[in-house]
Amino acid sequence: YRIRSNQSLDNILFLINFVKNVEPGSTCAVFGLGAVGLAAVMGCKDAGAKRIIAVDINSEKAEKAKAFGATDFVNPIYHNISINQVLVEMTNGGVDYSLERVGKVEVMRSALESCIKGWGVSVIVGWTDVYSITVKPLNLLCGRTWKGCMFGGKIFPLGFKSKDDCNWYICHSLKCFILMGIVSLLFLFCSIRTVISLSPE
């Protein structure tokens, strides 16, 4: 993809196409609403998903998720049962597709267990090489499919209608010397995409 000379580098974003197999009329769940998670929500919408459930522990991301196409938002903190049980009850059996981009093995397992038995597909996108993951064999023997996705496969530029649409992704713009501010945003889970300027001006 060639970047046009008149494009702002602050507003160049790409949609990772790991939802190309989502079928029209299907039900999807996206775990984690960072830039990749929101791209997944948008991809599910473009694929024609009937219901898109966005899952995140930060309720402030609900508005953005719905702006990108989510039909529902769920914060696991506000439920007394596991998030996979919540989604199974919401969808009367489980979602057709779940996408995990948090990078925690507990969330990966919950995403799998949120899928409907028989044909549900769960895709791991979040990265971790620290912990191992364990699941009960029955969770796969019942017909679910579990797969991973690195770098998203096909990548193409997002078709935003205006700069304002693109700015939905960008929450903060910081100078590179504000290191502690950048780190704090990561630990507070309050940033979707932060633009870091290397210019001293």
From TrEMBL:
- List the source organism: Oryzias sinensis
Q: Name one Pfam family in it.
A: ADH_zinc_N
Instruction: List GO BP terms, alphabetically.
Output: formaldehyde catabolic process
Cellular component (GO) terms are: cytosol
The domain of life for this entry's organism is Eukaryota
InterPro entries assigned to the protein according to its UniProt record, in alphabetical order:
ADH-like_C (IPR013149), NAD(P)-bd_dom_sf (IPR036291)
Query: Keyword Membrane on this protein?
Result: yes
What is the official name of this protein in its record? Alcohol dehydrogenase-like C-terminal domain-containing protein
